[in-house]
Amino acid sequence: MDAYTAEFGFELRTCRWAEREWPPGETDGVDTAVLVARQLGTTRRRWDTIVLECDSEGLRRRARFGPDRLDSDLLHVVRNAPDEWCYYRDALPDPGYPWRYVRESIHEAADRGILETRKSGNRIEIRRKWAYPDWLERLVAIENKPDLDASAARALGSQLEYDVAVGLADEAWVATRRTDDPVEPVLFEDLPVEAGVLALEPDDLTAEVAWYPRSLPVTEPGTRILERPEGGKRDGSAARFEYAGPDWKADKRLAIAERAYERGWRSFVETMRPDCRRFELRAPDGPQALPYCTAKGRCQTAAECAGSCSEFEPEPPAWRTRGWPIEGGPGKRVQRILAERRRRRRPEL
Ligand code: SF4
């Protein structure tokens, strides 16, 4: 099906496959709660697909903190809040930035109902409502390359080398379209041996592990590769690295996990134009709804499906008459369907 030849459609199919089948291989008796998100990472490195392997009970307890992410400032407050009333400056570790920002986070946490506060004279005292759970067990990064030719492999190789060197994700994978060759061609490409290779058939959503990854040392220091020699084998110039400490990594992993918790992978519709009359959701395998553009006759990419699209046509107001403006038109309905499916993946929400 051509719809998945483009990276975007393939990426959505990988997300759906991961949601159903992760972890790959022998998993009898393994109780892993999985959350899948896409297009998240750090400022230097954005991964296509992210799989969070979660502690089931921890994930349920995470729901007490609501569907929205906790950013690093809020995490600092709720993770360190005491279970008895205490002046916030005595209770919380020095944040390394001005305390007035901590006070803002305290007020935000109180407004969201995830922290108790009271005034004692001029002082703000805080008390936690619940302990923030250890819900994230492993974080897995997947790059999607349906057709991995040599030049795509070169670009991907340096991205994967970065992932291996920094060790922020527990595993790094490449998902590529399965071929009928006895050995998947991707294995002949010069990719780091630490990265796993998944051969995925997007039509029927089956996959085989062509190469198992190595676990990356997420609790040990890593290095961020900032610059590498570009001049080929004879280029003797040095690469530049930056230290990535275990604390930085732990904070980043949790911040990424929180964003993944909030967004999931179905949020693609938020950056597209479901209010275009050409926009449809089609479900090739029942539960998965993929975007489809009737003008293009295929799954459109998120970049194409924007207000700048020359074929954009707003949905006619008549489509919205029932219940509009409270209910909205088909575009709003699409957003609601996807939001509901996202919510179902988060137990207790
Ligand atoms: S015509 Fe353009 S804006 Fe409308 S659904 Fe297709 S890609 Fe999106």
In quaternary terms, these chains amount to single chain
**Strand arrangement, major sheet:** 1-2-6-7-8-9
Which shape, going by the Cα principal axes? globular
Ligand identities: iron/sulfur cluster
Q: In terms of per-residue confidence, which ranges show pLDDT below 50 for 5 or more consecutive residues?
A: none
Distance between the termini: 36 Å
Would you kindly provide a written description of the structure presented here, covering whatever features stand out?
The protein folds into three domains: 2-55 and 135-252; 70-128, Arc Repressor Mutant, subunit A (Orthogonal Bundle), CATH 1.10.10; 267-344, no CATH class. Helix content is 28%, strand content 23%. The chain has helices at residues 7-21, 56-62, 72-80, 88-91, 99-111, 150-166, 246-263, 330-344, and strands at residues 33-41, 46-54, 86-87, 115-120, 123-128, 136-144, 171-177, 196-201, 206-211, 222-227, 240-244, 279-282, 290-293. The strands form four sheets. It has a six-stranded mixed beta sheet, with helices on both faces. A three-stranded antiparallel beta sheet has the order 3-5-4. A two-stranded antiparallel ribbon has the order 10-11. A hairpin with a 4-residue loop joins strand 1 (33-41) and strand 2 (46-54). Helix 3 (72-80) crosses helix 5. The protein is globular, with a radius of gyration of 23 Å. Pfam families: DUF5787. Residues 313-349 are annotated as: Disordered.
